[in-house]
Design brief:
flat, three-stranded antiparallel beta sheet, alpha/beta, five-stranded mixed beta sheet, single chain, about 325 residues
């Protein structure tokens, strides 16, 4: 074999995420496929590039040396692609949006398409906020709407601008509709001590944030790792509970409840590249605020939480910005 840019990109993804599982999700491949690819690269070079530890993958001395040469090459290739696409672009207006999962997305896009008639608006979804921020810094995206788990700061590239949508959004918990704790409007964390918790380890900071909160409460429940689409089916039959966004809508077989004291929380942030287009970014942010407000008020448990907090989301200012 010969080393190619895709191999170097895979090595960078493993190093940045610290996990083969996370890197595979970021690259859009299966974990066994990425593991095989890494083994082939290491066999080709004649030594291990990463040490596999219980907490993840860490570059070996050789790995660090290879990464120091690989990163500039990957960055140059990304820049080449961005510049080539810019040259090929027909000059019409466009807006390239990146986002982690959010109930506000549909309303945000609807507002933007109405406001920016004739603009080519694209959406790139990723579970990794850090990956989206790198794409903004590289010029591959114009804006990125992401969440930052409390206690797990994002790795923000230099030069990015930011607007804060929510300084502290509480994370609620989803459980089976007939779960005993669902009978109360607010759930005590101790009432979930015997449940299996499910978390997606590929979401930046998610597992670390949950582990910190459970440990602080003196709890050590069993934890399942998996994506939240899989989690929904397990939660509905009482096999697990899971953190969820407060804008999540309850279902006939699933209840959404806030946790007492709101121990789990995230910051909601909109990142962009400063410069020309300041008015556009303000409009993009204003439409995001409006869409998030709509999603928040549509979710009953969250609307009740906002009422208790006397949140400004319930009283939109005339400027539409918060």
């Amino acid at each position: 074999m010969e080393l190619e840019v895709r191999h170097l990109r895979a090595l960078c993804a493993i190093a940045d995420s610290g996990s083969l599982h996370k890197a595979a999700r970021q690259l859009g491949v299966s974990q066994p496929s990425l593991t095989t690819q890494l083994r082939r690269i290491e066999n080709f070079l004649g030594a291990e590039l990463f040490s596999r530890e219980r907490t993840g993958c860490r570059p070996t001395p050789l790995g660090r040396a290879v990464l120091s040469r690989a990163r500039p090459l990957v960055a140059e290739m990304a820049a080449l692609v961005v510049e080539a696409k810019a040259e090929a672009w027909d000059g019409g207006p466009r807006l390239r949006i990146g986002s982690t999962a959010s109930r506000a997305l549909a309303g945000w896009l609807r507002r933007l398409r109405k406001r920016l008639l004739g603009t080519d608006i694209s959406l790139h979804m990723d579970v990794s906020a850090n990956a989206l921020l790198r794409m903004v810094a590289a010029g591959q995206l114009d804006v990125a709407f992401v969440h930052e788990v409390e206690g797990s700061p994002l790795r923000v590239p230099d030069g990015l601008g930011v607007r804060v949508l929510m300084e502290r959004e509480p994370q609620f918990v989803s459980m089976a509709r007939d779960h005993p704790a669902a009978a109360a409007p607010v759930v005590e964390l101790a009432d979930l001590a015997d449940d299996r918790w499910m978390v997606d380890p590929t979401v930046d900071g998610e597992w670390d944030g949950l582990r910190r909160v459970l440990s602080a409460a003196g709890l050590n429940p069993p934890v399942l790792h998996g994506d939240y689409h899989t989690a929904a089916s397990l939660i509905a039959v009482g096999e697990a509970v899971a953190p969820c966004q407060p804008t999540s809508l309850p279902r006939e077989d699933m209840a959404i409840r806030p946790l007492r004291g709101d121990p789990l929380a995230v910051r909601l942030l909109l990142y962009f590249r400063p410069g020309s287009g300041a008015e556009l970014y303000e409009a993009v942010y204003a439409d995001l605020v409006a869409a998030y407000r709509e999603a928040a008020q549509r979710a009953g448990p969250y609307r009740q939480w906002l009422t208790r907090q006397d949140s400004p989301l319930l009283h939109p200012p005339a400027s539409c910005c918060v």
